[in-house]
Specification:
single chain; alpha/beta; five-stranded mixed beta sheet; 5 helices; globular; coiled coil; DUF899 family protein; DUF899_thioredox
Length: 247
Amino acid sequence: MITFPNESAKYRTAREKLLRKEIELRRVMEEVAEARRALPPGGLIRQDYEFDGLDAQGKPAKIKLSELFAPGKDSLVLYNMMFPRHPQEKRDVATSGGTAKLARRDQPCPSCTALLDQFDGAVGHLEAAGFNFAVVGKTALENLVTLGRDRGWRNMRLVSSASNSFKRDYNAEDADGAQMPLLSVFRRDADGIRHFWSSELDFAPTEPGQDPRGLGTCETLWNLMDFTPEGRPSWNEQLQYGEACCH
């Protein structure tokens, strides 16, 4: 095993014990991924949902779910963001950029926005590796495009479900119309497009002292905090910090 300068024997013993737990965690993560890949075929989509999006020339267009699949790429990772934010959301709204012109109730969820800030850089690599990615919001396309411009997003395809029932049908909207955060994957096969998997941890029973961590394995920000002595603080993402956005 390696050592670091001036560490004590007590530290090294504890660190190697922790390392064994980290190895076990890695094994479990691989087992979960393998079990996910082995899921039976999910349900076929009921309809080829039509979204509002931008075409190849950057012009507003009607885009079907099937058109979010590029040729030769049969898996679509789709993030349902809370835009508009949840009615009970109390965090500050954007105070600069085009998004600041929206009423409080119509602005995006700060946590979803922060997560997508993290995803945007990865999407170019994800698509180069053979996958599709899109973000769905239940707001006007113009609002999504404005948010993307405000945040400096360059890689994610943004589409609006304001004119269809996609979010309600796939559990990203509750019975009262409040938006829910959900990552979903769809797979195209010879029979059509099927739902493959969605992040359901936020719907699972809560456990004392446990963060729901609906997307815990891919939230870079919070996972980085877990590496520190302080751990995750009692803190929430914001649309801006101080006078400027996080960018």
